[in-house]
Amino acid sequence: MRIWTMGTQASLLILTAVFFRMFLLYRLPKRTFVFLWWAAVIRLLIPYSVKTGWNMYAILDKSRVYSGMNGGITEHGLQEAGKSGIAQATRSAVPAVTKAGAEAIPVPICFWLAGILVIACIFLTIHIRFLLHAGTSLPAENIEIKHWQRKHKCIRSVRIRILETISSPMTYGIMRPVILLPSGMDLSDQETLTYVLEHEWVHIKRIDVGLKYLLAAALCIHWFNPVVWILFFLAQRDIELACDEKVVKTIHRKSREQYAMALLKMEETRAVGSASNVCFSEKCLAGRLKAIMKTKSWTRGNVLGALILVILPMALFLTSPVVKGESLPAHSEAEGADTLGEQIALLARTLVGKPYIYNGNNLLGGTDSAGFVRAVYQEAGILLPEDMAEVAEKGRDVQAEDAAAGSIVIYGRDHVPEHVAISLGNGKVVHASNSRDGVKISEIGYREIWKVVNIPDNRE
After folding, report:
1. Could you tell me which of 3, 21, 54, 31 has the C-alpha nearest to residue 318?
2. Which end of the chain has less Cβ packing within 10 Å, N or C?
3. Which one, of 417, 437, 420, lies nearest residue 429 by Cα?
């Protein structure tokens, strides 16, 4: 799965969550949106997806939403009439490495890698600087703190320490979490101390520090995607809102006024730009106070709505299409051809009319252009790389007019593969075109050709 494919799927999920968040933030448990942010981060970082028969791509294919477009959705983003938005931006920022790039990396890739390096260095510098400051902290020697620690035991040993260089409480560490309290905090104020420790305890139990690390990693990789920046800031805010909600419900709902006042008191003494775990600071105090005062008991309807809001977008945007396995009716005919290329061309021709499904890889149930080429070659006993740029690099270049049966025709501009087809010889190709036409036969020069390559027969 490519970077822009992961980014596009995650962006759709993020934008959906942002839309519902505008209307349902105070009507559903705050952790609902934190779960959605977890899902978005996982999509941004892990290049694999669960295959299901019910997702956005299958729905679009069945409804023919793009039936009026000359182009369709392909593995390499929205093409032709749909070539805009996130997929186009990411394709421009992160093109595939070509054979020419083996000697000199393309400028866009250098730009992308430079962005990763710069942002990663910023995060690491601030975080290392914070850890050095945290190393100067002292153990909290307080009877109330010791009593609280005895009541809140965890597999991961939680330490509570005092640090002079911070102005508000914070937590860092995953396996060995540490709660840092500012040296100026009045530890004799038992009520405020309880609120603070409970708040940080919720962060520890929910591994919020881990989510913040993942957010930082996702932002480093997808820094060119503006939707990921929205995720980066909204997720941190919702983490705090969900934590506040849990604290109010844990202690007592009637204590929310006192909790809000304690929060306000702590914010008044907060130093500007203080570094916390992964260099994040809490903002939008007014929003947090509003959420605290609106905290209420959730009904079954609220919980059911939250479950639907989490599960439905994840099923729509984070899964890949899958179909029941079937045997290829014409596979025996293809085996009767004289050469490997003829076998591949004959098999590909018999699949004309099969559906197009974005990210699909089943010849009978539906494929996109790259999935179609890989699946046909796999039927012939040859495994192709998932990245069509690697295919272009490893194959033997031929001229377009010399394309024989079974040759792979790669279309694109500026060394960026946008579409791929299988040559039938005599100036024709067969390819998974779009949601309207499915698999069809076209003239080899129906669009700009980047490369034509022959794949050697490496079958054993």
Report:
1. 54
2. C
3. 420
367, containing H or E segment: strand 366-367
| Ramachandran assignment for 413, one of left (phi > 0), alpha (psi -120 to 50 degrees), beta (any other) | beta
For residue 324, the model assigns a pLDDT of 46
d(CA 1, CA 71): 21
- Yes or no: say if 297 and 313 are a contact pair by the CB < 8 Å rule: no
Cβ neighbors of 80 (< 8 A, separation 6 or more) are 69, 70, 71
Residue 153: count other Cβ atoms within 10 Å of its Cβ. Answer: 8
Give alpha helix (H) positions in 318-358: 331-335, 340-350
The tokens 């392909």 sit on which residue? 74
- Across the strands, what pairs with 419? 411
Residue bearing tokens 């009637």:
254
- Report the distance separating Cα 380 and Cα 404, nearest Å: 16
Dihedrals phi, psi of 120, to nearest 5 degrees: -60, -40
pLDDT of residue 431: 94
| Regions of the chain where pLDDT drops below 70 | 1-2, 51-105, 252-254, 268-284, 320-338, 458-460
DSSP 387: S
For residues 58 and 319, is the Cβ–Cβ distance under 8 A? no
d(CA 114, CA 29) in angstroms, rounded, equals: 39
C-beta neighbour count of 414 within 10 angstroms: 11
CA distance linking residue 48 with residue 31, whole number of Å: 25
Residue carrying the six token digits 């009904």: 299
Report the C-alpha gap between 145 and 133 in whole angstroms: 22
pLDDT at 280: 37
Report helix, strand or coil for 277: helix
Question: Any residues with CB less than 8 A from the CB of 302 and at least 6 apart, and which?
Answer: 27, 28, 29
Residues sharing a CB contact under 8 Å with residue 419, sequence separation 6 or more, in sequence order: 74, 76, 79, 369, 410, 411, 412, 431, 447
Fold of 331-454: endopeptidase fold (from Nostoc punctiforme) (3.90.1720)
Look up residue 201 and give its two tokens: 């305890």
Give the amino acid at 208.
D
Residue 391 CB: number of other CB atoms within 10 A? 23
Beta pairing partners, 181? 162
Q: What is the pLDDT of residue 453?
A: 92
Give the separation between CA 13 and CA 305, rounded to whole angstroms.
17
pLDDT of residue 281: 41
| Closest to 375 (Cα-Cα) out of 351, 399, 353, 404 | 351
